[in-house]
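2024-03-11 09:14:02 INFO receiving multi-entity request
2024-03-11 09:14:02 INFO entity count = two
2024-03-11 09:14:03 INFO echoing inputs for audit
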Amino acid sequence: AQKITQTQPGMFVQEKEAVTLDCTYDTSDQSYGLFWYKQPSSGEMIFLIYQGSYDEQNATEGRYSLNFQKARKSANLVISASQLGDSAMYFCAMRSRSGGSYIPTFGRGTSLIVHP
Amino acid sequence: GAGVSQSPSNKVTEKGKDVELRCDPISGHTALYWYRQRLGQGLEFLIYFQGNSAPDKSGLPSDRFSAERTGESVSTLTIQRTQQEDSAVYLCASSLTLKTGSRTDTQYFGPGTRLTVL
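2024-03-11 09:21:47 INFO inference complete, emitting structure
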């Protein structure tokens, strides 16, 4: 079975500082994708960044980067130079073909609050 | 824009009534997903479609829930005999492919339908 674990229910960061949101995953499949989404208080789910299991380099998208450590099965999201608008819930997700099913798996989320 | 759209945005219904929620995926996306998100909770996977086929319905909470998809376009989630526990935001997402390990597997979400069962 596949599983996503986000151990930080809540995180606080000062504006302009960097913050790391943790995500560990478990799958027996060799081919999988890892995703991070942002959900502001408005409720929309916004795609941030993608990392494929065969990608050799860490993914980056603007201020977002993904610290992918395959052997440790971790896919931490790093947000550099935090902004007030980064305050939101952040979900880590994975899709692999586990047991013949393609069901996506989401973590419970981390609430990030950015202080001015 | 050409994003995922959902209707209605809000639905208030009485216990015992049936409701239909609609999702229009991004044009050309072969895969479509439905999720439920209760207040303050994470995402609960309900069902996904590959084309108009639903290979795995194990996420549907009960036989009151059903979903269908017309070709590679619109999908409808139907909840029969609604219960108060069905109150939640129902999110739809679509992806270009169902190819794991590929960026084309990225899901893009709609704005959701907020369902309130009185």
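2024-03-11 09:21:48 INFO post-check: Chain B touches chain A at residues 33, 42-43, 45, 48, 50, 55-56, 58-59, 89, 91, 93, 98, 100-103, 105-109, 111-112 (CB under 8 Å).
2024-03-11 09:21:48 INFO post-check: The CA atoms of residues 52 and 70 of chain B lie 6 Å apart.
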